[in-house]
Specification:
Blueprint: H1 3-12, E1 18-22, H2 29-44, E2 48-53, E3 71-72, H3 77-86, E4 89-93, H4 104-110, E5 114-119, E6 130-133, H5 140-150, H6 159-172, H7 183-194, H8 199-207, H9 212-223, E7 226-228, E8 233-238, H10 240-245, H11 256-261, E9 268-275, E10 280-287, H12 293-300, E11 304-305, E12 309-314, H13 318-328, H14 333-338
Parallel strand pairs: 1-2, 1-4, 2-3, 4-5, 5-6, 8-9
Antiparallel strand pairs: 7-8, 9-10, 10-12, 11-12
This protein binds guanosine-5'-monophosphate and manganese (II) ion.
Length: 340
């Protein structure tokens, strides 16, 4: 963390404050883990903290310490609005633009309280009085770890904080294998284990709690896999009907896109998931090496993220969205051929 950032935040936190901590829509392990971890730490430092999310998070995260204290805008709209209107300071974690909070953005855009952003996504918007942005970081949870470190709080890391931050780092690094995982990440992880994160149990809680429905849906997804070797690209699609037939629940498709990327020689993968309720096709992009799915998602599919992991959406039918995707690929033929 930069010295000036630490000083600015120090001033903001000099006296006990009413604080809300907000994550992005469809929160993942990093969003929930980083927000809960920071929430516990700020409470230990004497602040009054409420963690908010735009909407619900998947079942496989519902064991995280403190997750029962999270309130969601879609279910508890009035309560969330009240918390935000009473807040003196708002921490926004794991996203780089207010529109990543969906409908909650309208509320956040109107507040008078100051924002502090902690995030690792590329090209952050400029809405916060303090922006702690570092795109080289494995996860926002790792940034919260460095935040605590910068405020001399490592000794105050409780098992609850350790467990939340470990989970955020683990889920965003694909269990410590994506390129943003560094020696510094592993040192932070080692400390978190010392502070009470039960690593083996956390892995089991996240990865060994599959439902039969999810595995059957994975079967459908793999069956729908299309390989385009000329572009070193593979994609998967899942229709609303297929989701319904397999009793889809939030989080069930998490990680599916990685199977497409795991094919030998493939450097670019996508998954298209039909969402009739929102009338969109949700897309996840993944890549290996220097091919930037952040740029690709920004340019063509109203999205963004990181170099190797990004998301976006299509506003047409899934079939048309996929056709559009296929039509764009020739423009990237050289980049994909050269990617290492
Ligand atoms: P996922 O594909 O796992 O949903 O997301 C991959 C990464 O891209 C995450 O870091 C996520 O925050 C970001 N992301 C996902 N969907 C969107 C989107 O619609 N817009 C933007 N800007 N980022 C997204
Ligand atoms: Mn993240």
């Amino acid at each position: 963390m930069k010295k000036v950032t630490i000083e600015q935040i120090s001033t903001l936190l000099a006296h006990p404050k009413r604080i809300v901590v907000v994550g992005h829509k469809n929160p993942d392990g990093d969003a929930i883990g980083s927000c809960l971890g920071l929430g516990f730490f700020l409470r230990e430092r004497g602040h009054d903290v409420q963690v908010l999310m735009p909407n619900d998070f998947p079942e496989f995260l519902k064991w995280l310490p403190g997750c029962d204290t999270v309130i969601t805008y879609d279910k508890n709209t009035a309560q969330v609005k009240k918390s935000i209107s009473e807040a003196e300071l708002i921490f926004t974690l794991d996203f780089n633009a207010l529109n990543r909070t969906g409908d909650l953005a309208e509320v956040l855009e109107k507040v008078t309280a100051s924002f502090v952003m902690i995030d690792h996504h590329q090209q952050p918007d400029d809405y916060a009085v303090v922006t702690y942005s570092d795109v080289s970081m494995s996860s926002t949870a790792q940034m919260v770890y460095h935040f605590i470190e910068a405020f001399d709080g490592l000794d105050e890391i409780s098992p609850e904080i350790a467990t939340n931050l470990y989970t955020g780092i683990m889920t965003d690094t694909g269990s410590f294998r994506f390129p943003a995982t560094t020696a510094v990440t592993h040192r932070a992880i080692a400390t978190l284990i010392e502070k009470g994160a039960n690593n083996s149990e956390i892995h089991q809680n996240i990865y060994d709690t599959n439902s039969e429905n999810r595995l059957k849906l994975l079967g459908v997804a793999l069956n729908n896999l299309v390989l385009m070797p000329d572009y070193r690209t593979a994609y998967i699609s899942i229709s609303q009907e297929e989701l319904d037939q397999n009793h889809f629940r939030k989080g069930d498709t998490e990680g599916f896109v990685n199977y497409a990327l795991s094919i030998k020689n493939t450097v670019f993968a996508a998954i298209f998931i039909e969402n009739r309720q929102e009338n969109i096709t949700k897309i996840s992009f993944r890549s290996k090496g220097e091919f930037s799915v952040n740029e690709f998602a920004r340019k063509h599919f109203n999205g963004g993220g990181h170099t190797n992991a990004a998301g976006g959406r299509g506003d047409q039918s899934m079939k048309e969205t996929i056709s559009e995707f296929i039509a764009i690929l020739p423009d990237y033929k050289n980049a994909l051929s050269d990617a290492t």
